[in-house]
Design a protein that fits this description.
Blueprint (H helix, E strand, L loop, with lengths): L1 H11 L4 E2 L16 E3 L4 H14 L2 E5 L15 E5 L6 E5 L4 E5 L4 H9 L3 E2 L12 H7 L6 H4 L2 H4 E7 L5 E5 L11 H5 L8 E8 L1 E2 L3 E9 L2 H13 L6 E6 H6 L6 E9 L1 H17 L3 E5 L4 H5 L2 H5 L3 E8 L5 H14 L4 E6 L4 E7 L4 H17 L3 E6 L2 H4 L9 H14 L15
Parallel strand pairs: 2-4, 3-4
Antiparallel strand pairs: 1-2, 5-6, 6-10, 7-11, 8-9, 8-10, 12-14, 12-15, 13-14, 13-17, 16-18, 16-19, 17-18
Helix pairs in contact: 1-2, 8-13, 13-14
Length: 434
């Protein structure tokens, strides 16, 4: 490691290589990396990766640190590769509705620059003030507006990555329409930094809508809330978000209800007015009451509402189920926790079937493990899957983070073996031990 540190200091400058007590912000689950290095260009990233690979050190790409606790803990003899210095807005073409930005730029910073030109990147993942572009790509993070605007795969059109052997690879382009062929950038979306280090990305943009509103409708039962969501989704309205939350999560959002349906609309002012009126009429006819407008600040709180509803959390689990099973899954999961004497909080992107559940800490760790095991079995029985989005190491040792990936896991292992044969990038963190 001393020889590697000397090489890194020569490559990026001694001021950008941290060791010792300076590593405290980068401790993950009690494990401290050997060093943290902050390159200032794609070439320096490539040089760092090459040096680490030659020294046999694992490389942990690090953006804003918002999702570093996801997955298995990092190995010893690891090198944090921080991308905070790669934060330039490289190119913005307002007429083409495209932007190219370095991976270390925060989403909030990028959105502020784009909104000054009347445009935005149609993604709203949690913690936008800290989350970086590279991290959002690696985690495939999204938020409530994914209902209408999709996820990272729908807006990414070009990517530059540094591979495990230190090569700089470009994929896609800087225009919305590209020639046919393999869509290489999509391979790195949601790969958790195990296949390459993202250093630059190009996105297609949208004009900022004239108006946007967020409504909450109170219901007495989750079941009724789910039925209302299904009716809404089968109708003619075009919401940009459709969320279902239970009582604890609603309370965290300032809504007093056993369950709430939260719906967003955007577009021209007249169009939004009409959709809000239609939504109010529809919700009332389906048993909803007290349709209220939420403040704009509620948008950023929606993505973390279940997490924020419980202060003393034992775990955070994310589910993917059929949209028709969302309310039923939330009810069954909450009941499974109650049987063990534990509280829980639930929120769902109802239109896409993505659910987040926070489990309250209990006196007996066995109860926590049992509930999480029940939750995963419940998701699988409904044709879906579940992953531990956050949990202490003691819980992860009892409940697998990712679950059984099946045949897909074996395919992913083969891809990893081709792109990172020496297992340099984020080893062991992702599905199937990748």
């Amino acid at each position: 490691m001393p020889a590697l540190l000397d090489t890194l200091r020569t490559t990026v400058g001694a001021a950008h290589v941290l060791t010792g007590v300076e590593l405290s912000p980068f401790v993950v689950e009690g494990r401290t990396p050997d060093a943290a290095v902050f390159p200032g260009s794609a070439d320096e990233v490539a040089a760092v990766v090459r040096a680490a690979a030659e020294a046999g050190a694992a490389v942990l790409p690090w953006g804003g640190g918002t999702a570093v606790a996801v997955g298995e803990p990092p190995p010893h003899a690891a090198l944090v590769l921080g991308l905070g210095r790669l934060s330039r807005l490289v190119e913005h073409e307002p007429g083409d509705l495209t932007v190219t930005v370095e991976a270390g730029q925060t989403l909030a910073g990028l959105q502020a620059a784009l909104r000054a030109q009347g445009q935005w990147l149609s993604l709203d993942p949690p913690d936008a003030e800290r989350a970086t572009i590279g991290g959002i790509i690696a985690a495939d993070a999204s938020g409530p507006r994914r209902h209408l605007y999709g996820t990272m795969r729908d807006v990414l059109i070009g990517l530059t990555v540094v591979t495990a052997d230190g090569a700089i690879v470009h994929g896609g382009g800087k225009v919305v329409k590209n020639v046919a062929g393999y869509d290489l950038p999509k391979l790195f979306v949601g790969a958790w930094g195990t296949l390459g280090v993202v250093v630059e990305a190009t996105f297609k943009l949208r004009p900022v809508p004239d108006e946007e509103r967020l409504l909450a409708v109170r219901f007495d039962r989750l079941k009724d809330c789910g039925a209302a969501a299904r009716t809404l989704l089968a109708g003619d309205l075009i919401p940009n978000a459709v969320e279902i939350v239970d009582a604890p999560t609603a309370g965290a959002l300032g809504i007093s209800a056993e369950a709430a349906l939260i719906v967003g609309f955007d577009g021209l002012a007249e169009q939004v007015d009409w959709q809000v009126a239609e939504m109010t009429s529809l919700a009332t006819s389906l048993g909803g009451r007290d349709v209220v407008a939420l403040p704009p600040a509620a948008w950023s709180r929606l993505a973390t509402s279940a997490r924020d509803a419980i202060d003393s959390r034992a775990a955070l689990m994310r589910f993917s189920v059929l949209p028709t099973l969302v309310a039923e899954t939330m009810e069954q999961g909450a009941e499974a926790a109650r049987r063990r004497g534990l509280g829980s909080a639930w929120a769902a992107h109802a239109g896409v079937g993505t659910i987040t559940a926070a489990l309250m800490a209990g006196r007996d760790a066995a109860d926590v493990t049992a509930v999480l095991t029940d939750w995963r079995a419940m998701a699988v029985a409904g044709g879906g899957h579940a992953m531990l989005a956050w949990a202490p190491l003691a819980v992860k040792s009892q409940v697998p983070v990712w679950g059984d990936a099946g045949p897909a896991g074996r395919i992913m292992q083969r891809i990893k073996a081709k792109l990172d044969p020496r297992n340099v990038l984020n080893p062991g963190r992702f599905v199937a031990g990748i």
